[in-house]
């Protein structure tokens, strides 16, 4: 994409958040236009996961968050999820004792109507492994398969914005490409992506834009290719 639309799908302004009285985010400003893949990068402790949790309504915040024209201030997490801003958290948080099928169906718990489970077709198209393992307990899947299941469960909500927190964590290297390919295909279906990911080279190669966080502040923002080519970023985050 060449630029932001006048009314971005997600607009975060002067966002602050704290854990147990300790400020973690210090006036974050970001925008995500409909149809973009936007990466959030930074060192451990920079506030990346906190940013996603704040947008998802999982912690108290200050500042403003607008999604699809709706003010998210004071909305509970389940309301934000139903609006279409859906977080796939770090660690996946699956129901390990339940089957793959049950985990997926739980993702559609808030939907109504005869097409409630229609997204299953899309999930199986993106992740054929899940269809092969429908009756298998989630806790018996490999790390990569569990991540596929976590993303698939989120897709069952029919999201407009999919927020991914470290989707490659705990995954065999040969499956990382499958996850990144799925992210691009999901964007191709009209879902906007906001991604925090430790594999920065791969992530910046598929992202449109990126934000760099440092100690809870945005210190750099721009097109992903520009961020990837920046000498300071390459030294600090890409090991180059």
From TrEMBL:
A GO MF term: branched-chain amino acid transmembrane transporter activity
Task: Name a Pfam family for this protein.
Answer: ABC_tran
**Any keyword Methyltransferase?**
no
| Coiled-coil annotated spans | none
UniProt keyword Membrane, yes or no:
no
Give the GO biological process terms: L-amino acid transport
InterPro entries given for it? AAA+_ATPase, ABC_transporter-like_ATP-bd, ABC_transporter-like_CS, BCAA_Transport_ATP-bd_LivF, P-loop_NTPase
Q: Looking at the record's lineage, which domain of life comes first?
A: Bacteria
The family assignment reads:
Belongs to the ABC transporter superfamily.
Per its record, how is this protein called by name? Amino acid/amide ABC transporter ATP-binding protein 2, HAAT family
């Amino acid at each position: 994409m060449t630029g932001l639309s006048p009314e971005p799908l997600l607009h975060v302004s002067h966002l602050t958040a704290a854990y147990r009285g300790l400020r973690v985010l210090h006036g974050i400003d970001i925008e995500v236009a409909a149809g973009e893949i936007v990466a959030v990068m930074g060192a451990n402790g920079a506030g990346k996961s906190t940013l996603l949790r704040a947008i998802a309504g999982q912690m108290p915040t200050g500042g403003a968050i607008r999604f699809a024209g709706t003010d998210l201030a004071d909305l509970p997490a389940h309301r934000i999820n139903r609006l279409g801003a859906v977080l796939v958290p770090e660690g996946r948080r699956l129901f390990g004792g339940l089957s793959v099928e049950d985990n997926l169906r739980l993702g559609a718990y808030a939907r109504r109507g005869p097409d409630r489970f229609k997204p299953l077709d899309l999930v199986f198209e993106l992740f054929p492994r899940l269809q092969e393992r429908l009756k298998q307990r989630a806790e018996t899947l490999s790390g990569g398969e569990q991540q596929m299941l976590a993303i698939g469960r989120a897709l069952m909500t029919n999201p407009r914005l999919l927020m991914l927190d470290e989707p490659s964590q705990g995954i065999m290297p040969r499956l990382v490409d499958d996850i990144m390919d799925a992210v691009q295909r999901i964007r191709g279906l009209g879902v906007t992506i906001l991604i925090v990911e430790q594999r920065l080279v791969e992530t910046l190669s598929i992202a449109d834009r990126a934000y760099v966080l440092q100690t809870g502040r945005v210190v750099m923002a721009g097109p992903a290719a520009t961020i990837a080519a920046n000498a300071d970023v390459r030294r600090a985050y890409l090991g180059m």
